[in-house]
Amino acid sequence: MPALDIMRPILTAKGCISQSISVKLRISLGRPTNRCKFHMSLVRKLIALSFVLVCLLAGGAFAQDPQDRQPLSGIAAEQQAAIERLSTQADRLEKDINTNSEDDVRLVEIRLALEDLQADVLKSGVAFRPTLTDINAKLEALGPAPKDGAPAETDEKATQRAALSKEKSQINQVIGQAEDLLVRVNGLVNKIAVIRRDLFANTLMKRYQLRSAIGPDVGEAVGDQVSMLSRNISAWFRFVVRFKLQAALVATFFASLVGVIFYVVGRRVIARLLRKDPTADPDYLSRLSAAFWSTLMPSIALLLFLTLTVALYQSYNVLRGDISDYFIGLLQIFFTCFFVNRLSNAILSPDAPNWRLVKIEAQPARVLIWLTTAAALVVGLDRFTGIVTESLGSPLSVTILKGLFAALLVGALLMAVGSVKPFASEDGVARPWPSWFRATVYVLGTATILSALTGYISLAQFVSRQVVVTGAWVATAYIGLLASRAISDEGAFGSTSAGRWIKQTYDTEDSKLDQLGVLASVLINLLIVFAFLPVILFQWGFQAGDMAVWMRRLGAGFQIGTFTFSPLAILTGIIVFGIGYSVTRWFQSWIDGTVMARGRVDIGVRNSIRTVVGYAGMAIATLIGISAAGLNLSSFALIAGGLSLGIGFGLQNIVSNFVSGLILLVERPFKVGDWVVAGDVSGTVRKISVRATEIETFQRQTVMLPNSQLINNAVGNWTHRNRLGRIEVPVGVIHGTDPEHVYRVLLELARGSQLILKNPEPFVLFTGFSETAMNFEIRVFLADISNGSSVQNELRFGIVRAFLREGIEIAHTPRPTSAPPSASWSLDDDKAEAQFVERIAKRADELVEEKRKPRRRKPDPA
Amino acid sequence: MMKSIAFTLAMALTGGSAMAASAVNLDSETRTIVVTEGGNRQQIDIGPGETVDFCPSGCFVTLPNGDREALTGGETVEISGGAAKIK
Q1: Record: contact A562-B18, CB cut-off 8 A
Q2: A136 belongs to a structural domain
Q3: How do residues A754-812 score in pLDDT, each as one tens digit?
C-alpha cells in the first residue's frame, strides 16, 4: 500500500516528537535539589534536546526529499498561508468554546463559525486541483522514470521531472495540513454537541436544596431584593427625569401614537372582519377561521406594537441595560397573557355560543379562560422575576423560592383545569373532560408539583412553561391545520369570502375553485409549519443558530444510499419551473392576443402557433427546472438511449399520435370551431392537443379522437375554406299532379327564404318516379352551413303550406289494409268437413257454369 | 403506459442525482485509498474494476500513489496504474 508507505515516516516523526516532549517534561519536572542534580538535569535536557532534533531531522528526511525543506512557492505557499490563517481561527474558536462552555447561544454561534471553517478548509484543498492535474499530465508526458540498469534519461528531462515531483510533494504536504485541520475542526464540532447536551441535561436536572430556601432568613432576603429593585428603578427614573426627559417624552408620544393607530385600525378593520355575529349560524370552516384569525391578527398587531415601542425607547437611549431587560420582560408577560387570553376566548367563545369550537357550557368556558390566563400570568411573572433576580445577583434562596412558588401555582392551576366539568349532559348535569384529557392534565400538574417539591425546580419551571406557552402555540397551529383541512373539502373554498371574490372576478368554475381550495389548504399547512415550528422550537431551548444549521443541511441535502436528496434544490427546481411556466403562459397570451390578433392572423394559424409556443415553453421550463434541481441532464439522455427500444414498442401509439398532432398543427386541415366528419364522428372541433383532438358532437358528446386517426383516415370538413354549403330537401307528390306547377311552387319557395343564397341560385330537381310518387328535390346553397337544420325546417313547413294552398297532394305509401281474418281451423271436425264438402261442390258448379258460356274469340292478330 | 413513464422518471432521478464522489479502479489489482471525511480517516479497498461511492459532502482523499486531493463530492476518480485522474 504505497499510500501508507508514504504516510508512515510522517507519523513516525510525529510519534517521535511527542515521545521526546514527554521525555522532556518528565525531565524538567524533576526537582533540582543541589548543584550536581542541577548539572545532571542540564545534561539530560541537552540530551533530550538533541534527541528531539535528531528525531525531527530523521522524520523530515524520511518524509521528504532534502529539497522539499526549501520554502514553498507558488500556490502551495499561498494556500499554506490560508490554512495557517484558518488554523489560527480554529485555535481562537477552541478557546472560545472553553470560555463559553456555559453559554448555549454562544456555543451555537461557535459551531456555525466552525462549519464555515470546514467549508473554507475544503475550498483551499480543492484550489490545488488545476495545478495537480497539470503536474500529473506533465509527468505522464515525461513517461515513467528509468529503472535501475536502464539507460539514464537526458538531463533536461531529469531536471523537469525533479522540479515537478518537488512541486507535487509540496502540494501534498499542504493538503496534508488542511486534512489535519479538517479533522481537528470536526472534533471541535463534536465537542460542542457533547457540551450542549450536558449543559441542557445539567440545567434541567439540577437539584436544589429546598431547606436552604425555606429558612428563616429568606423573608429578609426577599425584602432586600425588593428594596434593591425599587432603588434601581427609582434611580433610573430620576436619571430619566433629569437627563432624558425630552427623549422619554418623545418616545412615549410616538409609542402611544403607534398604539392608538394600531388600536383604531384594529377596531375599524380587523374587528369588523372578525366580528362574530351572535345570531349567525356559522359552519365549521367559518368558526375555525374566525378562531384562527381572531387569535393571530390582534396578537401580531400587539407584538408589532410592543417591538416598535421597545425599539423606540432603545433608539432614544431611555432604557438602561438592566431596566431594558425588565421592560422587555414586562412586555413579554403582557404579550403572553394577551395571547393566551385571546386564544382561549377564540376557542371557547363564551359570549357567542354559535362560534364555539369546542361545545363547552358558557360558565365553565369563562372559568377556563380565567384559569389559562392566570397560568400564563404566573409563567410570565416567573420568567420576569428570573430576569430581575439574575440582574440583581439575588441569593440562590430567593431564586429557588420564586421558582418553587411559580411551579406549585402552575401545577395547581393545571389540576384546576382538569377538575372543571365543562360539558353538560341532556338533563343539565355537568360532565367532566374526556378521561384522556383529564389524565394528561393531572399527570402534567402532578409532575410539576412533585418535581418542584423534590427540588428539581428547573425541571418544574421548564414543564410549566412548556405546558402554557407551547400549549398555546400548538393549539393555535392545530386550529389552523384543522381550518386548512376543512378548506380542502368539496365546495368549502367556494363558500369562503376569498372563494366568492375569485368566483365573481374571474368567473371560475366550481371544480376549479375546489382545486384552488386544495392548493390553499396546502399553502396554509406549509405556512403553519414554517411559522409555528420555529416558535415552538425556540420554546424548547433551540437557538436560531441551530435552525440555521438545519437549513444549511436541508440545502446541502442528505444522503440515502448513494442518492443525495436535497429538498432545497428540488424546491428551487419547482419554483424555476413555475416561473418558466408562467412566463410561457404570459408569452403565449401576449403573442396570441396582441401580436397575432392585431395582425389579423387566421384563427387556425393563431391556434397552431399558440399550441406550439405552449409546448415549446413547457419543454424549456421543464429542462431548466430539472437542471436547477441539480439533476444531471446527461443521465436523461443515457436513459432515453437505453430505453428507446422499450419506448419504441411501448409508446409507439403515443409517439405516432404526437407526431400526427404536430402535423395537424402545421398542415391545419381543420381548426377549432370547424365542423368535421371523421368516420362515425361528426361535430365541432373544440381543441387540438398534441395527442388527441377534442370533437363535440351535436348531441354535445365530447369525443377524443387520437390524432393519428385524423391523419391516416379521410376527414371531411364542412367549413374548411368557407362556411358555404348545400342542403337538399326531398319531397314526393302523387301521380297525376302537374309537375311544372310543383316545380314552380318549390322554386318560388326556395327563392323566398332569407338564409338561402341567390347565387349559386336555388335549384329544384325532378329526381324521378317511384311506384307511388313523382320525386322532387330542392337544392339550395347556404352562406353558413351550420344553419342547415333551420333552413330545412323552414322549407318543409313552407312546402306543406304551399301544397295545401295549391291543392297538391304529397305522395304517401298507402297503408297496407289489414287482410280479413282467414278462417281458422275449427275445432269441430264434422262441421268443418261438411263446410269443406259444400265449398268443393259450389266450386264445381261454378266451373260447369263457366264452361257453358260462349268463348269470346280472340281478334285476328293480322 | 403511465408506469413506463414513471419508471423512466424514477430512473432519471436516481441516475441524475448521485452527488457523491465515486472512485473506479481500472487496474487489475486491489487499490486502497484513504478518505478523510468528517472527523474520521478510513481506508477503502477497491477491487479490480470495482466502483465505490463515498464522500457525499466534501472530503480529503489520499490516492494509491501518495497524491492527495480534496473532493467536493460529485467527482469521479479513475485509478489506473496506481495514479488517479479526477473528472
Answers
A1: yes
A2: yes
A3: 889 988 899 999 999 988 899 999 999 999 888 889 999 999 999 999 999 999 999 88
- The reply to whether B25 falls in a domain is yes
Domain that holds residue B68: 19-86
- Which tens digit of pLDDT belongs to each residue from A807-858? 999 988 766 666 666 655 556 677 778 888 899 999 988 888 877 765 555 5
| Distance from C-alpha of A791 to C-alpha of A778, rounded to nearest angstrom | 11
Contact between chains at B18 and A125 (C-beta distance less than 8 A):
no
Q: Residues A313, A457: one domain?
A: yes
Q: Quick check: is A638 in a domain?
A: yes
Q: Which of A697, A717, A737 is the last residue of a domain?
A: A717
- Give the three cell numbers for residue A35: 548543584
Among A383, A447, A381, A462, CA closest to A414: A447
Q: Are residues A76 and A222 in the same domain?
A: no
* Chain B residues with beta carbon closer than 8 angstroms to that of A190: 39
Q: Which of B77, B73, B71, B19 is nearest to B50 (CA)?
A: B77
Flag if B36 and A168 touch (Cβ within 8 Å).
no
**Do A348 and A465 belong to one domain?**
yes
Q: Is residue B35 part of a domain?
A: yes
| A334 vs A330: CA distance, rounded Å | 6
Nearest residue of chain B to residue A4 (CA atoms): B66
The helix (run of H) or strand (run of E) holding residue A686 is strand A681-688
Within 10 angstroms of residue A842's Cβ, the number of other Cβ atoms is 10
Backbone angles phi, psi at A775, to 5 degrees: -100, 135
Query: A111-164 pLDDT, tens per residue?
Result: 888 888 888 888 888 888 888 888 888 888 887 777 777 777 788 888 888 888
Give the CATH number for residue A743. Answer: 3.30.70.100
The total domain count for chain A is: 5
| CA of B15 vs chain A CAs: smallest distance (Å) | 6
CA dihedral over A21, A22, A24, A28, signed as positive or negative: positive
- My answer on whether A537 and A654 are in the same domain is no
Clarify whether residues A265 and A240 are in a common domain.
yes
Q: Looking at residue A491, what DSSP letter applies?
A: T
Q: In this predicted model, what pLDDT tens digit does every residue of A175-229 receive, in sequence order?
A: 888 888 888 888 888 888 888 888 877 877 777 777 766 767 777 888 888 888 8
Half-sphere exposure of residue B29, counting CA atoms within 13 Å on the CB side?
Answer: 7
Does a structural domain hold residue B9? no
Determine contact, residues A466/A539, Cβ cutoff 8 Å.
Answer: yes
Q: Within this chain, do residues A442 and A509 fall inside the same structural domain, yes or no? A: no
CATH number of the structural domain spanning residue B62: 2.60.40
d(CA A596, CA A602): 8
Residue of A nearest to B15 (CA): A635
Question: The complex's ipTM?
Answer: 0.80
Range of the domain at A762: 725-806
Cβ-proximal residues to A159 (8 Å cutoff; 6+ apart), any chain: none
Domain boundary among A654, A689, A717: A717
Query: Per-residue DSSP letters for A531-581?
Result: HHHHHHHHHTT--HHHHHHHHHHHHH-EEETTEEE-HHHHHHHHHHHHHHH
Across the A:B interface, residue pairs with CB atoms under 8 Å apart total 126
Q: Give how many domains chain B has, as a whole number.
A: 1
Residue B23, in any domain of the structure: yes
DSSP code of A727?
A: E
Give pTM, 2 decimals.
0.52
3-state class (DSSP) for residue A703 = strand
A497 burial level (CB within 10 Å; 0-12, 13-18, 19+): exposed
Q: Do B32 and A3 touch (CB under 8 A)?
A: yes
Q: State percent of chain A over pLDDT 90.
A: 14
A250 in the same domain as A126: no
Q: Find the DSSP H helices in A64-154.
A: 74-99, 104-126, 129-142
